[in-house]
Amino acid sequence: MSGPPTDEERPPIRVMVVDDQWMIREGLASLATVDGDIEVVAVAADGGEAIELAGRHRPEVVLMDIRMPVVDGIAATEAILTDDPSVKVLMLTTFDDHQLIERSLAVGAVGYLTKDIAATDLAQSIRSAAAGVVQLSPDVTQILLDPNRARPGPSGPSGSPVEVVDAGRGETAELGPLDELTDREREVLVLVARGLSNREIGRELHLSAGTVKNHVSTILRRLGISDRTQAAVIAAKHRLI
C-alpha cells in the first residue's frame, strides 16, 4: 500500500478572492499564489458574483471582503456555506468593527484578517483555513475580548494572524455556561480553540476520533452554539487558552 500523499503530490488549494476594488482583488490574488500549493480559481467583484462563482468553481478557501455592493460579504458567506458547508471562508478587510467580526463568525467564517497582512502570512492563513484552523489577527482577538477597542475604519499594521485564538493569560473570567462542562469537555474545548482536528485531539487525549466528536457535539449543545469557531471565541473570552 502506498502512504499518504506528500506535499508535492497534493493538489493545490483552490482559492477564490472576493473584493469590490479591482486593484485589491488582483493584489490579493497575486499574494495568495506566492507558493505553488495554492491556486486562485476565481475572482469576484461582489457577493452576488461570489455566490455564483463558488457554485461553478468549488473553491476550498474563499478570501471574502465584507463591505461590498449588491450582496455584502457576510450574506455571501452564509449563502456559500449553505450550498457547501465544506468551504472555508476567511474574512479579509480593512475594518475591524466588533459587530462585523461577530456576525462573520456567526455565519461560519473560520477567520477574520486585515488586508495589511504579509504575503507569506496570507499563504499560511490559506493553508490553515483549508485545514479548518480558526484564525484571528491579534487586533481582532483583542476586539472580541474588549468591544470598546473596535475601530470602524482602516486599521494599522496588525501583525501575523494567530492560529490559536490567544486571549492572553490572566485571571479566569466568570465561566457562566462553561460551568456545565465536565473537566474532560473543557480539555476538548481548549484543544478545539487551538485549532486541532478531532483526530489530533484524540491523539492528544488518548481518545478515539468518534469519542472526541461526541464530546464536541455535547460542548456545542451545552454552550448553545453551532460551530467550532464560536467555541474558540468563547474559550478565548473566558481565558481558557
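Second entry:
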Amino acid sequence: MPEIITGSEISAAPPLQPKDVKAKPASALSRFFSIENRYLPPMLITTILLVGQLSFGLLESFKQTALAIGVAMLLELALGRLVYGKFPNLASAYITGISVGILVRSPAFWPFALCSAIAITSKYVIRWKDRHLWNPSNLAICVLLLLAPDVFSTLSIQWGNNLPPMLIVWTLGALITWRVKRFHITATYVVSFLLFALLRGFITGHGFQAEVAPITGPMYQLFIFFMITDPKTTVKPRWAQCLVAFLVAAMEMVLRLAENIHAPYYALTIVGPLAVAIEIWITARKRPSAQPV
C-alpha cells in the first residue's frame, strides 16, 4: 500500500536552501560597472583627458603625457617583478602616469618622467605595516613643487562657462565611484568644499562664486575622483573616510587663506598619511601580542 503524505508533513518539510536556488546571472552592464572591474577608473581618467583636451587643450603635449605614462608603467613592471617576483596589473600605474600627464605644467620633459618615477617608487619604498601612506601622484607633485618650483607647476584652468564637458565628467565620475563604493568620500569632500568656500567668501570678501570656482576645474576632477578616493591610501571605516575627506577640505581652506595656490595637494599630503598612520597604530595596539610558550 503506497504511503500517504499528509498536509502537516508537507508543511513541515525543510525549506529550500539558498544553494538549491540558482542565482540569476548578472547582466553584462552590471558586470561592467561592478567593483571587480579594475579598468573602470582608467576609463574614467581617460575620458577626463579626452574631454579636457578636445574642449580646452589642457595638456602641455601628448608627447609629455605619453612619457609620463610610459615611465610609470615600465617602472611599475620593473619594481613589481623585483620586489614581489611577478608582474603587477598596470591599471594603477596607468592612472598615475596619466594623472601626472594632465596635472604637470612644465616646458621641459624631465619633470614628467621624474614625477612619474617618484610616484611609482614611493609605492614600494614608503610603506608602514605593508600599507601605503601617501597617494603616489599627489606625493610626487608636492615633492617637485617644493624642489623645482621654477620649472614645475600644476594645472589650474577651469571649465569656464562650457557646461557639457563638466557634466559628462561629473556624471561618469559619480557613477563609477558609486559603483566601486567610494562615492561617499567624493560627496563629503565636495559638500565640505562648498561650505568652506562660503566661509572663505565671508572672510576674504571675494564672494562665494570666486571661492567655489576652482572645483569646476579639471584638476579637481582628478582630485575628487582619484586622489582622495584611492583605496590603497585611505582609512578603512566608512565614517572615518568621510571624516578624513572633511579634514582635507578644512586643511585646504586654511592653506587657501594663507594664499597657497597648491592647497589641495598639500592638504591631502598632510591629512591623508596622518590618518592612515593613526589607523595603523590603533590596529596594532588592538591586536593581541603573541604569548610566549
